[in-house]
Write a structure and sequence with these properties.
The protein is mainly α. It has five helices and no strands. Helices cover about 50% and strands about 0% of the residues. The protein is elongated.
Length: about 170
Amino acid sequence: MAAEPQPVKKALSKNVMAMKFMKRKVEADYRRQLEQEKQRAIEESHWVLQGKEERESCIEFEASYVNCEDLYQCGRMSFKKFNPAVEKLFKEMLAKEEEAKSQEWESEESVSDEEMTRRYDSLVETVGKKFSKKRKMLSVDAALDALSPSIQKPAKKKKTEFMKPRD
């Protein structure tokens, strides 16, 4: 059997190889080859006992205990339904905390009855003034006084007219 001749690869000219982008390509290939050799040398120098597989450590080291301050207060925890009684207690405790937070939020955001009536009275007055004409302003103010006597309006000051100085 005769061996088939291998196709001959044509090389690029030296002028093309002297171009900057070609030099960068050659350097990148060289760096990649060096990195592979280093990695291979590290892997060969690493000792492994036969029959034992290498495992990563599952232990995490923290420099401070600050991350542990907000943990579960009871002290017992259960994961993936390992201890259903503890998980039930945990759910009840979370429900109580949520209820306490919601009540606190409601008390902060709620408005008392007196405050609500005061706001409503001022709203009625403002809307009434918006839709009244100048001529009817006085009659609307009187009607509002009759509807909401709890509002105490400041006394209106009379406009003083310009007084001509004496000669």
